[in-house]
Amino acid sequence: MKSWLEKHFGKAWMALVYLFLYLPLFFMMVFSFNSTRQDANFTGFSLRWYEALTKDTKLVEGFFLSLKVATVTGVLSAVLGTFAAFVLVRYRRFTGRTLFSGMVNAPLVMPEVVIGLSLLLLMVGAQNAFGWPERGLLTIVLGHTLLGMAYGMVVIQSRLMEMDRSIEEAAMDLGARPMQVFFLITLPNIFQAILAAFLLSFTLSFDDVVISEFLSGPGVNTLPQVIFGYARRGINPTIYAAATLLIVTVTVVIVSYSVWVARQTRRREREVAAAARAEVMAVAP
Amino acid sequence: MSDLHTSSTSLAMPGKRFVIGVPFGWLTVFFLLPFLILLYISFVDMGGDIHPFKPLWDSQTGVLHLKYENYWTIFKTDWDGALFQTLYIEAYLRSVVYAFVTALLCLLVGYPFAYFIARSPASVRPALLMLVMLPFWTSFLLRVYAWKGILADQGVLNQLLMALGVTSEPIQMLYTNVSMLVGMTYVYLPFMVLPLYANLVKMDFRLLEAAYDLGTTPFKAFWLITVPLSKAGIIAGFMLVFIPSVGEFVIPSLLGGPENIMIGRVVWDEMFTANNWPRASALAVVMIGLIVVPLALYYHYTGEQDEKR
Fold first, then answer.
1. DSSP string covering A10-32
2. Which of A23, B87, B182, B257 could cysteine-pair with B175, CB 3.0–4.6 Å?
3. Which of these ranges, A100-109, A125-134, B235-244, has the smallest mean pLDDT?
4. Is pLDDT at B10 greater than 70 in this prediction?
5. What pLDDT, on the 0 to 100 scale, is given for residue A155?
6. B78 domain-assigned
7. Amino acid A94: pLDDT
8. What's the pLDDT band for B79 if we cut at 50, 70, 90?
């Protein structure tokens, strides 16, 4: 039984909050097609900001740099996140476990300014000592991966914890070597989570301003850094055009990922049902 | 039994050292070592032009330069003739207060929202949650930037207010506390909604019906039953909003006013404008302290809860 208040007030409250959440997105999508620089009046439809976007070399270069950084970060974070999740879930006892779990989780709560600053100090120290690494793509990737690995670990850890270990044990009883067990049994089972970890760290990296600002060198600017620079100066509808393209891409990726996960789940359920039927048939022919 | 089994299989795994070694090594080099360097530099003297800081141990004279000045200046209040110089303390306090207000606003907006999602039919709940998460996946920077256009003096909101006759002149919203809090609440709202939802959806709503049957008003039932049962979700959401808000750098830079310098910005300026690496490091170390204290309280609280169970 819901009260009258709950029914109507609830719907209204939800509508308002969703409006709040989506207002900036709609705002940018609409005004990216505006024919003038005006921000409050829609003066007519035009694609001029999209054209300006393709000609803005800073934004385009930043985009390709960010794409590279985010891809490498995503892969590294997924791999290292898998390692870290494995260690935390499977190895209950080893020397330094407390230190390890502290170090994995700390980047989740550390202010980005602190992460950026301390890594910068490390990089400068390394550069003074070995003349390497030059500040740029590599150093940004290292910074982003520290964060991405922590988030990736959380996602993979929860999947690994709920995974049924008896199938791994069955494989081992049947003579599979540990490596075979991992690649043939464990990996396919946690693959969804690894993909989610990749997507999450890719997004984090593609969006990060603070760590990049600390770790990038002169003339090396990721897309968010370029946008941040523009944003501090004022309104620029070219950014809205970039935002619109990003919103469309993200929506497509997220929706297809969800559809894929739903399909996988359904397929697995079907297979389990078929196996159960086969078992019944075998027991009672 | 299962524990025994796990340990025996892990012992049999020849790759255990490798599996632990890879992430452990990575974190030692890229997390622990940088932190130790930060701590080290926070205790040394500012250097000359070429070297940003002096070594702790002068190998020629054999003098140890352990300096507490970097920390001391943070907490010192100087009388410089006109003003008490409390820039750093003020920035810390401001960051904490704004983070707290942000978390409070997120709770006010997010609690009813999460509650109503949790009480929606089970078939639509995944879609409703997905709609909460979707903006989170699109660039946070761009969404903050959009608020700049919405809240500007000549922006959509002011135009709308003037068209409605609420005001005849544009109200300044951008570059004030208001715009900054709107931006922070907007960005961190999902961090509040998700843990609250996860908590509320597990609640047994028959408890409320029982209370109604016994003559309780809905309002009283809400305060006496729903809120206490969702305490864990409230605290988790509060922490998830408060902690990143304290160190927030981007939102105050884009939406905040010039008088609202947050501690993240202060660290940045100290590093890149003043080029005072030791002080920037000391400020960063104190900033970690600001995060660790509420976190320790949180773990203490949740640890106690787990023990009770």
1. HHHHHHHHHHHHHHHHHHHHHHT
2. B257
3. A125-134
4. no
5. 93
6. no
7. 85
8. low
Q: Mean pLDDT, chain A, as a whole number?
A: 88
* Residue-number span of the structural domain to which A255 is assigned: 240-278
Rounded to 10 degrees, the C-alpha dihedral A227/A232/A238/A243 comes to: 50
3-state helix, strand, coil in chain B (%, to 5): 70, 5, 25
pTM, full prediction: 0.86
Is the CB of A1 less than 8 angstroms away from the CB of B209?
yes
* Judgement on whether residues B10 and B147 belong to the same structural domain of the protein: no
Element spanning A89, H or E:
helix A57-90
Residue B177 and residue B261: Cα distance in Å, rounded?
11
Q: What is the mean pLDDT of residues A244-260?
A: 88
Q: Is residue B104 part of a domain?
A: yes
Domain of B20?
A: 2-70
How many CB pairs below 8 Å do chains A and B form together? 228
Using a CB-CB cut-off of 8 Å, the residues of chain A touching B3 are 92
Q: Which amino acid is present at B40?
A: Y
Write the CB contacts of A30 (distance below 8 Å, at least 6 apart in sequence). Answer: A42
A 96-115: CB under 8 A from B: 96, 100, 103-104, 106-107, 109-114
Q: Is A226 on the interface with B (CB under 8 A)?
A: no
Residue A153 CB contacts under 8 Å (≥ 6 apart), including other chains: A80, A81, A84, A85, A88, A104, A197
Let me know if B84 is exposed, middle or buried by CB neighbors in 10 A (0-12, 13-18, 19+). Answer: exposed
- How much of chain A, in percent, has pLDDT values that exceed 90? 46
Contact B155 A39 (CB under 8 A): yes
A chain contacts of residue B261, beta-carbon cutoff 8 Å: none
CA distance B70 to B53: 12
Looking at the structure, tell me whether residues B100 and B182 fall in a common domain: yes
A156-170, A217-231, B42-56, range with the lowest pLDDT: B42-56
Residue corresponding to tokens 């989610």: A196
Total domains in the fold of chain B: 2
Looking at per-residue pLDDT, the higher value among A153 and A134 belongs to A153
Burial of A12 (0-12, 13-18, 19+ CB in 10 A): exposed
Residue B267 maps to which CATH number?
1.10.3720.10
| Distance between CA atoms of residues A97 and B256, nearest Å | 42
Is the pLDDT confidence value at A19 over 90?
yes
